[in-house]
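Example record used in the benchmark description.
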Amino acid sequence: MKISSVKNVENNQNKAYNNKKQNTSFKGVADGLVKFWEFVDNGGRALSFTVEDMCGTNLPRTYKGATAGYKYTGKINVPALIQEAIREFLTGPLMCLVPIVVLKTAKSNMGGTSDTHIENIKNLSTIAQNVDGDLTKASFYKATVEDMLERTVAQDGYKANSKDVKALTDSLEELANLKGTKKEIKKAKANIIDNMQQTFSRIVKQSKTQYNGDDFLTASYSVAKSAGKTTEIGSTGFKNYVGYISSYAQDLFKKADSAGIVAKDSIKSFRNSWYGKRIGVIASMIGITAAIMTTVPKIYTKASGKINPNASAIYDAANNKKEAK
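Model output (structure tokens):
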């Protein structure tokens, strides 16, 4: 029988403990990073851009400003730090926040279709005009869902199953009738759309025989029709499209009569009106953002002085050498 020394046993135990500790620490860091980037991803493009801008430019450039001329003076360049910090920490956030504020203001005052792409205003108007019978909210939802499934599956002979259509249209009705506080509505809306996404993905997977790299998160739809046939097809993220359908329906059916029916001959004027509004919203987002951005150089120039503080240390060093000569 071979007996290991007590020292060897202790060493093995210590190694196992240290490995376990390192693995636990790494797992904790990894989990934290995953949760952080999930939070960023869920926050949308504005939050993603802000984080990228912060890590890629704001912090590095502020640091460079603070150390500008350090090798000549041995001191932190406070004016340059202020200038870089003001410029970088104002520019990125303003570029994101101003368009969001303009868009939210437009949605509150004009309607949710303010945030609907022009292609989808056209696409949903085309579907509304081609609804069989009276144009009610229920018939509109049914037509949009049938069109979306048939264009997404895109196989000869495929017709949207009535049970599948009902599952999605019921959810659209549920979205339209949400009540409660803003926080409650936001949470309920997110849950409904997540469930719709899962339902949509399941239907497409079950209906297609060839996938060709489809991600099951993208919805296709008719943009234009002629003589009853689809002549142009578009696509976007499923969740985006659900939002467009909901917003368009909410604004369109403000024109409904007491029976909840919208006259089809009013759709063209409704579509053209929203083309103009959408273009106006986009122009306002660009124009107001540009106008506000022009104030940023004035702010950081006033805060740091007229002379470029990044080069001030170099100027001072050059002047000192000249005086010494």
